[in-house]
Design brief:
The protein is an all-alpha fold. It folds into four domains: 93 residues; 61 residues, no CATH class; 94 residues, no CATH class; 85 residues, no CATH class. It is built from 16 helices and no strands. Helix 1 packs parallel to helix 3 and helix 5 runs parallel beside helix 7. It is elongated and about 100 Å long. The N and C termini lie far apart (93 Å). The C terminus is likely disordered.
Length: 413
Amino acid sequence: MAELNLRASAINAIKRIYDRVRTIQPGSFDEFQLEQELKSATTHFSRFTANHDQLVGSAKPSELDAHATLWEEVEDVYNSTCTILNRELRGVKRIPPAGTQPREFEVKLEPLAIPIFDGTMQNWLAFKDAFEMLVHKTDYPEAYKLGKLRQAVSASAVPLVGSVYSGGYAELWTALKERFDNRKRLAETHVSRLLNIKPTSEDTSQAILLIVDTVHESMRALRVMGLPVATWDAVVVPIVAAKLSIATQREWSMSCSPTDIPSLDELLKFLGQRAHSLSTAVVMWNKGADVSSRSQQRASGPSRAVKAHVAAADEGKCVYCQGAHRITKCARFLAMKCEQRIDAVKAAKLCFNCLKLGHSARQCTSGDCRHCSRKHNSLLCRASSSPNTASEDTVSSVPQESSTTTVPKKSEP
């Protein structure tokens, strides 16, 4: 087969040039010799690529792996040859002729990696910009550009690239742009991504930053497309705010003007600060708990560890029904009988005295029961709910600890 012989001839020519230049001594080739070697290597590689594509187009599926392996081997040799020659050319050109001023020192930068395109619309713009800058707008041979395009686009996600014969580089690149460079579909994709941000009930740094990053990416893509996103604040801000937790929504509302429309930049800046403060609060809380624990051990000897609940900071959220109120104002909680309330408090791991997270009744500084003056909340007092059985033993049977501590059995209800 003619293509097979021509490809083999091109491979041998590239290898001969590589063997000739890999042991090159500094100064043994002048600038013109180096440029000629580089031009010859590029010409032979273009010849190799053209015949290689013809053979791949007529190959059986079982033969494609062998062709791909050969391509990688030849490409490595060609790239190594070009690297050596370009390095020598730079060294030759840096030596100034006699009687001239030396050139300014040149910094060699590592080549940028071409991102892999997975066939999703939301990743097309980033891939297109990078590929056009690194490959499409360069002076590389068309065959080399075609090989890079096939490497950068996933054939399993975009079958157009992995077909037996997909045309030349210009034809394939045009087909990809016709399919993915669609302003209507791109706008719909990024607007849909913005609208479908998953709401979060977690008031954590990670949850907030995930929303911030998604908004940044979607708005940046729409801005690149030339859409007037700078005038969308009145629409986008409420959409994003609705995805936040109740506590973060409350903080955002308190920081806004009651009459002016906030901008999206203001919201994103607020969320960045909020995420930072939440991550810092967790560190400071843990640090304070360690210091308090060590101080208590020095003062009164070994004691049981008390679990710190960062969620206790959110006192405006009902831990029973998750509503925007405290548990003492919860209609469902107040409608239950005393025994049911006690069970609910146990399940939520609340303090039996103040009905908050983060400590036990023995450590609580809130006031005592209004009915019997013992260390439990008035809503949990059996004496007020069952007058006929309001003996001292019954009243004292309300648990005194949350789930983070253990008390003697005689104090259990």
